Amino acid sequence: MYTFFKQTHSPHSSLSYCSFLLHHCLSHKSPYFLKTVHARFLKLGLNTYTYLGNRIIDLYTEFGHINDALKVFDDISYKNSTSWNICLKGLVKSGQLDNACHMFDEMPVRDVVSWNTLISGYASYGFSSHALELFVEMQSTGVKPSWFTFSILTSLVSSPCHAKQVHGRMIRSGMDLSNVVLGNSLIAMYGKLGLVDYSFDVFFTMKQLDVISWNSLMWACCRADCQELALEQFCYMRAAELLPDQFTCSILMSVCSNLRDLEKGKQVFAFCFKVGFVYNSIVSSAAIDLFSKCNRLEDAVRLFKEHEQWNSALCNSMISCYARHDLGEDALQLFVLTLRKNIMPTEYTVSCLLSSVTIFLPIEVGNQIHALVPKLGFESDTVVVSSLVDMYAKFGFIDDALNIFNEIKTKDLVTWNTIMMGLSYNGKVSVTIDLFKELVREGTPPDQITFAAVLLACNYGNLVDEGIKIFSLMEMEFGIKPEEEHYSYVVEMLCRAGKLKEAIAIVKKMSYGTTLDIWRSILSACAVHGDLQTIEIIATKILERAPKTTLPYLVLAQAYQMRGRWESMVRVRKAMKNRGTKEFTGCSWVGIKNHLYTFESNQLQHYGGKDLYLLLNLLAWEMETEGSLSAINAVDWIKFVMQ
Q: Does this UniProt record's set of keywords contain Repeat (predicted)?
């Protein structure tokens, strides 16, 4: 090949062979050979030819050498629209959106390919609003969108109304909606929004169907929680004599995971063996998720270990599996291994790790994962940021959680709910209510979790009037029907305030059966504020549902003792002993140097407790000498702990 350059004397006669050499560079994926060919082009003066220059730019961008591509672009004497579009595509592909926008503005002619390239770039890097603005600008310039333009837009929609507008715009633009690519995009668009009926409508209007069409429809059913319907579509697909691919099997695995149906999952897994998809990473990832959700951890681990080649999807599924089974240290170890193998984690993986940290690992590990977030480019991802807020809130570092929340530019409802729930659990009652009012002012509609967080704050802060007002607004103003959790918080709040009649009145309004937690709250309040008849009625209700629970016996025994009914008290204590009631033992844990130590009640003596008791005695003696009111209360508390 190199002797050709020495023998040829006519550059024009060499164009076809030059094209062959460039094709050779692509087929062998050799950037070094491309640079060699480019150097000879420069020597022979072929670098100024438009066709050859465009081919070299395309190859350099394919290999990720964008700077070399720009140099070739500058050398081309006559730059046609293809030259500009290829270079624009290379800048977008390399992540240089600012430079791509600058080149886009300098283009003498911008055709539909130019607009599609930049719109696609904005969409792929998460700038959906910019992509939509560019689409509007494209229409104002008179450039007619293509089917590819609309396929990009279908991936950007965020609401049913928006989806229908895009669909309507396709019809007005004269798009052939029977086109298989457009049809598949519409099915996926409606499926993402849970509008499975619309997905079926599009599916039935398509003249030609391929595997992607069926996969998109099954995914739409799965997404809309119509799992059995998704399985039916697979049967119809097989009846149409279409061969499923690895994505089909992955979707079927997800369906079985959502159903928690291990038997059907095994049938899908056996089918994967039959068609040779079992070691495909996409299928294996879905299978690991299936085994994990069906409590078959050993099968998930075995399947993972059978893979010699790891990739992001496979490792992410296994990390999530460990996290789901409360194996935080195993999840963290695998995460470190993936980083060492240059396997990039996803946002979901980091979120799972942060959730594991909050329960099983010390805060230092959470800090280390937090330090990785900006390095991985996830600092703007709402899922990761919400997990960070949740982690710091659960560790008690609520100020750090609030700082992270305040730095978020675009907050979704999950983020708002996470910080409000964290603030409530950390006793920041007024801040929680202020954030709730701010959320409503911004026009973001709250959901059940939002109201649960606010009612919990009102419960902890004894803000009865505020809590009742917010509780009444749920259904009247926001159309959200109260659930068991909301009733529980309100009843407990009223009981703590001594308003037993109001609490019982709210319980009677519940449209479904009262839970044990609500009856326990009322019974605990009755022990202080109630009469004996009410205590006996509620205790009986609890014992009918949970005969071995301790609380009703204890409250009844105390009530009989306070009223001097000694025989009744003895009878209740004897019944409690005969029924073998179970008491839940309190447990605390502390993380020290990557180890988790748990302490149950009466277990302190086993961990050097004598020294701790001596120290508590000294503190009690010193406080008693001070004689202050707060010191006396502290002494009582210490003596209670030492009993």
A: yes
Angle between the N-to-C axes of helices 66-75 and 31-44, in degrees from 0 to 180, rounded to the nearest 10: 20
Which stretches of 123-217 are assigned E, i.e. beta strand?
none
Tokens of 483: 């659930």
Residue appearing with tokens 């649960």:
452
In this structure, the dihedral spanned by the alpha carbons of residues 120, 125, 129 and 132, taken in order and rounded to 10 degrees, is: 0
Contacts of 176 (CB under 8 A, 6+ apart): 147, 182
Q: How far is CA 478 from CA 402, 451, 509, in A?
A: 26, 10, 19
Contacts 24+ apart (CB under 8 A), 140-149: 141/110, 143/110, 143/111, 143/112, 143/115, 144/112, 144/173, 145/112, 145/115, 145/173, 146/112, 146/116, 147/175, 147/176, 147/179, 147/181, 147/182, 148/116, 149/112, 149/115, 149/116, 149/119
Partners of residue 600 on adjacent β-strands: 587
Distance CA 480, CA 474 (A): 5
Instruction: Give the type of residue at 408.
Output: I
Q: Taking a C-beta distance cutoff of 8 angstroms, is the pair 389, 401 a contact?
A: yes
**Verdict on whether the full-model pTM lies above 0.85:** no
What's residue 635's pLDDT?
46
**Cα of 306 vs its chain's centroid, Å:** 28
As its CATH architecture, domain 483-496+503-583 has Alpha Horseshoe (1.25)
Residue 274 vs residues 245, 249, 277, 279: alpha-carbon distances, Å: 12, 12, 8, 12
| pLDDT block averages, 10 residues each, the chain of length 643 | 44 50 52 57 59 69 68 72 81 81 85 87 80 86 86 84 87 81 90 90 90 93 90 91 90 92 90 85 90 91 88 87 85 87 84 75 80 84 88 90 87 89 91 91 87 91 89 86 84 81 77 68 67 74 73 76 77 72 58 59 52 65 57 47 47
CA 204 centroid distance within chain:
32
SS3 465: helix
d(CA 643, CA 641) in angstroms, rounded, equals 6
What string of DSSP letters covers 260-287?
T-HHHHHHHHHHHHHHT-TT-HHHHHHH
Question: What's at 474, amino acid-wise?
Answer: M
